[in-house]
What we know:
The protein has 14 helices and ten strands. By secondary structure, the protein is α/β, with parallel strands linked by helices.
Amino acid sequence: MTQIEKPTLGKNQRWIDADLASAVLPRREPGAHKWGVGAVLVIAGSPTYTGAAWLTSRAAGRAGAGIVVLASGRSVIGTVAPAIPEVVHVTLPESDTQSGAKRMLERIEEQLDRVKAVVIGPGLGDDEASEALLSALFGFGGKSLKMRDNIGFGRAIPLSARQGSDKEKTASSPIFSRQDMPVLIDADGLNWLSKQDKWHEYLPAGRAVLTPHPAEMGRLLGIDADEVLKDPVKCAMDAATTWKQTVVLKSGYTVATDGKQALIAEEAPVALATAGSGDVLAGSIGALLAQGLAPLDAAAVAIQAGIGAANLASGTFGDLGVLATDLPDAMARAMKELQ
């Protein structure tokens, strides 16, 4: 891959630093309740990637979510439940059939009225079961057109071809059917999107936060990762403008942008170059979204806290010895310093 250099700030761009993150960090009022401070639904994990569900859920809890609800298969929950007893679990059938997808969708929909944000994608895998789940959740692509007659949704139609209210426009997508609830899409959720034709036309504007690394961004755009890295800030801003969503491009000096402005990490700790660090970032952003932060503010806090966590963990284990499992607890300490 192309060597990543520290970018030079341009118009409508600024560094993410402690002052910026501290200014928007959530504060709890006396008498706060766990549901009141924000619940996040995490749809993550597969038999191959149980750790992704653990990391995302742990990070969401350490970033302040009052309730973390994990929706995953029985094999994943059997691993995560003993390790993080605070997490609420929704057991999904591990099936790629139409009836299995319907049951998965029903169990997830039961949670949507209670949560304030959704994180979908970390460690879901790339198989027929995950495709069936994602097609049902997003309301388009893959097997969804065959399934929706049974599940109860109408034929998927791109937003550009729809008429009527926002409610009507999002009715075919369960995860976007709750007014104003943000949905963070990461990892295998992004890889699935990249295989769907004109996928961004199906997403309601301003409702999604996409968190790709350069290879995932390349797949979404149909270009090589090296092309992404030639100018990550411009690439992210152009994509956010085209997609009408918030993009967090994890490219060393991580970029968060809505297309109008860009917030850029001032540091790029090498300790974050470890498997699972992206899952931690996804969970922490999701938790901050659930607490009511705007997408760019949530990303700024999570990115700055992640930098602080990496520096703290490096102080103990060195740059080469940091694991993603070290990051959620260190991130909580970094957020404490931001307070």
